[in-house]
């Protein structure tokens, strides 16, 4: 009886879990193999609002190895600064960590391809991922406050401690929430398994056609 | 000639692009949502954000950061939308109140309960009744960024052992000047380690921020040891009063738990009483993060009046967070050792204290429950008796 309830619960929650999943695929389209993880479908409402806020918006995307619950080394990092121009209805790329040449992104799609998609192409990481698969932690922070300004804000708060109020001013201070964050864990399958699946799908399609 | 012309044309183009990047916006409407801590009218006046005003993104970004620096909000986000009139923009400011303080005036408080066992015969030598210390702060008095705090410390017999009142005039975060005043009095015999050379103090000074978390302070200070009052250190200089000039530097954020870093300060009080009674104050603190959410803080304070008297307090505090309990209230235990000494001519006091406590916070209140073992100087009572002998 309890097993039936458990299965029922699993069925109820399954669609929600599926919606929260990130898009992950092995990409062979370019000369080099890469693993692509897109976070665009996992953006929160507040993150979407910030992107279209009309102000400079900073995005920080990082992917890390997970060993159990322990965070390991960085697999991918990307930082972008964009601004949505509401008069011209287009995105302006102000800064990109990898210094690409584009400075004007005509569409949301171009922005997401560049800034909201991890493109893991490092050879050493790929060898491990392709052979064994891995659990990866994906984190996206979107903020209107750059790291430099975050330091400034912290300094202003510290300087307000310097008077006779001292710690009494700040000892009640909670954490500043300077960015909207999304964090999730994704299971990257080994490349061989992916290829097997694709071959199976192609085989099924071929059989159907036949 | 042609080259110069090309350079000039190039410069004109570059200047033009620069202006385009810093586009002027004509505000049609400003909406503020999420908080009642700063009224819209106050914000419009202080930030010059009124309908019809022209602003740049740079100005708005600076305004947003100033709001974040007030310490009233956990989050500040600005959003622009096209206005109903062509070429005009609507600004929406979304605020989230800092949950560390509550209410429109941003109240916070702390309650400390201490059970102490003293080795001093004058203090009973047995378990003294529980003493209680209550502190209240407001970071937004009158909804206009005035700051105030007060604290009272009663022992189990209902006798007031210390109190303070402090007031800070408003400043917007990025403004580099603030003015604060504070008055405090401490029972020298029962709270010996909470004083430094004087039982009563009054200070009022301006603080001017400099670069690298450093500030210069100047104002007035009056330190007193009033005869026939328990808020005094008997046998010590009675008055130190005059202009105070100091330097303070700190890179630690002293929130519920201090961040890693340092603090140091030095100041001079130019006594108007006697030229050879200049007061010198120094303070240094250092906090280091250790393994597994624990930290260690070392602190030293010193005060001397001329070359005849000196006082110092030193403390070492280890704090460890307790993840096993409710993480929202961020509980931690701490162990602290304090040592202090005061010397003037032939008189010398010395005391030390070990304190084991539990801290946590909830709904803007910090609770601090501690057990202390204190050794306070018995000579204070003897000096009191001699001083007040008819």
Provide tags for this entry.
heterodimer, A: 210 residues, alpha+beta, 6-stranded antiparallel beta sheet, 3-stranded antiparallel beta sheet, 7 helices, disordered N terminus, B: 390 residues, mainly beta, 15-stranded mixed beta barrel, 4-stranded mixed beta sheet, 19 strands, 52% strand
How would you portray this structure in words?
The complex is a heterodimer of chains A (210) and B (390). Chain A has 210 residues and is α+β, with helices and mostly antiparallel strands. Chain A contains seven helices and nine strands; from the N terminus they run H-E-E-H-E-E-E-E-H-E-H-E-H-H-E-H. Chain A is globular and about 70 Å long. Chain B contains four helices and 19 strands. Chain B is globular. Chains A and B meet through helix 5 and helix 6 of A and helix 3, strand 3, strand 6, strand 9 and strand 10 of B.
Summarize the topology:
The complex is a heterodimer of chains A (210) and B (390).
Chain A: H1 2-20, E1 23-27, E2 34-38, H2 45-51, E3 57-67, E4 70-85, E5 90-96, E6 104-105, H3 108-115, E7 117-120, H4 123-132, E8 134-143, H5 147-159, H6 167-170, E9 179-188, H7 191-209
Antiparallel strand pairs in A: 1-2, 2-7, 3-4, 3-8, 4-5, 5-6, 8-9
Chain B: H1 2-21, E1 24-33, H2 40-47, E2 54-56, H3 57-68, E3 73-82, E4 88-97, E5 107-118, E6 131-141, E7 146-154, E8 160-168, E9 177-186, E10 200-209, E11 214-224, E12 239-250, E13 261-269, E14 279-290, E15 294-305, E16 309-321, E17 332-344, E18 347-362, E19 365-375, H4 379-387
Parallel strand pairs in B: 1-4, 5-19
Antiparallel strand pairs in B: 1-2, 3-4, 5-6, 6-7, 7-8, 8-9, 9-10, 10-11, 11-12, 12-13, 13-14, 14-15, 15-16, 16-17, 17-18, 18-19
């Amino acid at each position: 009886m309890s097993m039936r309830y458990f299965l029922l619960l699993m069925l109820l929650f399954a669609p929600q879990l599926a919606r929260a999943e990130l898009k992950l695929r092995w990409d062979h389209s370019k000369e080099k193999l890469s693993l692509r993880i897109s976070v665009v479908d996992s953006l929160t409402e507040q993150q979407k609002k910030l992107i279209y806020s009309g102000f400079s918006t900073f995005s920080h995307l990082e992917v890390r190895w997970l060993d159990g619950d322990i965070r390991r080394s960085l697999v991918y990092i990307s930082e972008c600064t964009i601004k949505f121009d509401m008069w011209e209805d287009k995105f302006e790329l102000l800064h990109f960590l990898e210094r690409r040449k584009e400075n004007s992104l005509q569409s949301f799609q171009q922005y997401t391809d560049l800034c909201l998609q991890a493109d893991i192409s490092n050879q050493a990481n790929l060898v491990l991922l392709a052979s064994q698969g891995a659990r990866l932690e994906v984190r996206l922070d979107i903020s209107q406050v750059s790291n430099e300004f975050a330091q400034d804000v912290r300094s202003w708060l510290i300087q307000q401690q310097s008077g006779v109020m001292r710690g009494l001013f700040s000892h009640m201070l909670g954490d500043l929430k300077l960015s909207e964050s999304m964090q999730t864990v994704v299971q990257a399958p080994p490349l061989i398994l992916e290829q097997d699946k694709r071959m199976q799908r192609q085989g099924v399609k071929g059989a159907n056609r036949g | 000639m042609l080259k110069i012309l090309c350079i000039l044309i190039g410069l004109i183009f570059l200047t033009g692009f620069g202006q385009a990047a810093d586009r002027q916006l004509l505000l049609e409407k400003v909406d503020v949502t999420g908080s009642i801590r700063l009224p819209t009218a106050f914000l419009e006046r202080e930030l010059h954000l009124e309908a019809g005003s022209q602003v740049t993104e740079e100005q708005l970004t600076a305004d947003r950061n100033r709001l974040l620096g007030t310490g009233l909000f956990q989050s500040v986000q600005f959003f622009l939308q096209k206005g109903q009139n062509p070429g005009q923009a609507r600004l929406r400011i979304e605020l989230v109140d800092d949950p560390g303080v509550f209410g429109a005036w941003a109240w916070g408080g702390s309650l400390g309960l201490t059970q102490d066992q003293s080795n001093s015969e004058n203090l009973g030598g047995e378990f003294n009744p529980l003493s209680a210390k209550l502190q209240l702060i407001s970071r937004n008095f009158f909804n206009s960024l005035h700051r105030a705090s007060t604290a009272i410390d009663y022992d189990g017999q209902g006798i007031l052992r210390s109190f303070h009142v402090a007031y800070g005039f408003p400043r917007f975060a990025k403004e580099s000047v603030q003015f604060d005043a504070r008055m405090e009095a401490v029972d020298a015999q029962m709270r010996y380690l909470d004083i430094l050379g004087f039982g009563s103090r009054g200070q009022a000074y301006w603080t001017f921020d400099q670069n690298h978390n450093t500030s210069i302070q100047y104002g007035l200070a009056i330190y007193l040891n009033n005869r026939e009052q328990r808020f005094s250190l008997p046998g010590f200089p009675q008055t130190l009063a005059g202009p105070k000039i100091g330097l303070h530097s700190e890179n630690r954020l002293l929130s519920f738990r201090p961040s890693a870093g340092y603090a140091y300060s030095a100041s001079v009080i130019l006594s108007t009483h006697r030229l050879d009674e200049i007061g010198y104050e120094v303070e240094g603190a250092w906090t280091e993060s250790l393994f597994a959410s624990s930290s260690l803080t070392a602190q030293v304070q010193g005060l001397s009046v001329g070359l005849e008297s000196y006082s110092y307090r030193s403390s070492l505090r280890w704090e460890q967070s307790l993840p096993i309990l409710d993480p929202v209230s961020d509980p931690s235990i701490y162990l602290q050792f304090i040592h202090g000494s005061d010397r003037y001519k032939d008189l010398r006091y010395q005391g030390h204290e070990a304190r084991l406590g539990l801290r946590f916070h909830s709904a803007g209140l910090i609770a601090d429950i501690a057990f202390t073992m204190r050794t306070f100087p018995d000579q204070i009572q003897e000096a009191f008796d001699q001083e007040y002998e008819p």
